[in-house]
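Pasting as-is:
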Amino acid sequence: MAQSTQYGSDAVFDNLIGGTRVGSEDRCLNRNPSNPADVLGRYARADAATVTEAIRAAGDAAPAWADYGAQQRFAILDRAGSLIAERADELGDLLAREEGKQLAEAKGEVLRAAQIFKFFAGETIRNTGEIVDSVRPGLIAEMTHEPIGVVGIITPWNFPIAIPAWKIAPALAFGNTVVFKPAELVPASAYALTDILTEAGLPEGVFNLVMGPGSVVGDALATSAKVDALTFTGSVHVGRSVIASAAANQIRVQCEMGGKNPLVVLGDADLEAAADAAINGAFFSTGQRCTASSRLIVTADVHDEFVALLKDKMAGLSVGDARADGVDIGPVVSQTQLDQDLAYIDKARAEGGEITGGTLVESTTGGYFLAPALVTGTKPGDTINVDEVFGPVASVIEVADYDEALAVANDTEFGLSAGIFTTSLKYSAHFKRYAESGMVMVNAPTAGVDYHVSFGGRKGSSYGPREQARAAREFYTVHKTTYTNAG
């Protein structure tokens, strides 16, 4: 159970290593972005030696956990999913308070985490192999999938329960042990998930939590030769360093590193539905999603009408405390992120863009509230159309026709998600085939993906095997081929 049942400035939360709580002199304060004076506790910051000890504990626990029966692993993961679902209201409130996600969205994220654990509970007993006759007489060939060993997991702050779930659950399901480093802005959600996994019955050492800054904890994980696989979600800059470190040690690595996702709107589209999808994709979750619709590419024949619709819908959005009734959009996650968002808005204005919204929203709590920003009159090469802002900021690019829309959509170093609104089967089929992204949405928001399908992108967005669903096995297991002489 948790060391502290209350969240507040006096509450203390420690790392978990080999089943033992491990504290530190150095701690970070976890603040509510809706009200920075509201502190959720003081969380231990691990040093490199602590991370090394966590990796050792995971390594020691790995052989026994790999030999656990599939039914035993199924029961633990299934129980974890049930506990998460039972506590959805409590965990959703915690997530909204810690990260700033609007309350209904926060609870939805928690329920998705529960579904993920339930899905991968099932994968424990679906880890099938293949038996074939050898081309050499008398031999039988078997192809199986085995645990890779110790998995290092580094997750971002924008989905503090769902992203850890879709990494932790498959790692455990396929018999691996885990060292988990959450983003330092959201340790409470990670700590709560750790408690649930412990309560669900994980043996000591199978799951280890190390909190702290990426420059220390993340670096220690990424550079350790004792880690067998490393999965990371975060910025392109950090992801590339993780890839380089993993390559130096010849360990398996998987990175999800962001997007600059296009939503194309053609002249034959249902503009009302397209505008709703653009609002959802660009501004919900405060725009802090790697699948956010940050570039709205609209053909000239409906450009003005579509922009007018967007502005009308934006005027009806309520920005405020993430846990308050009637709020559509919560705060930006931190002052640093808010400053970055404002800097990009200023840059867009300086490059000739016209800004609607994008102003600070005053509050009595001093929260990091920003009105959604729409930037019109932009060109494809403008900074606002090139860099990932990661905030409630969307730009509009006017194009002549579908061909130009597709070219502009693909003109980016990223390739995570892309969407199109059209009633044309011709254009939707062509876009599904030629959009340079890992995921394509037709007449739907670019953000959002089911828990039982694969997740990942192309180009600068992703590196390594896909996440989630059956595809996860490719990362979390090693293939083995064995021969038996039956003669």
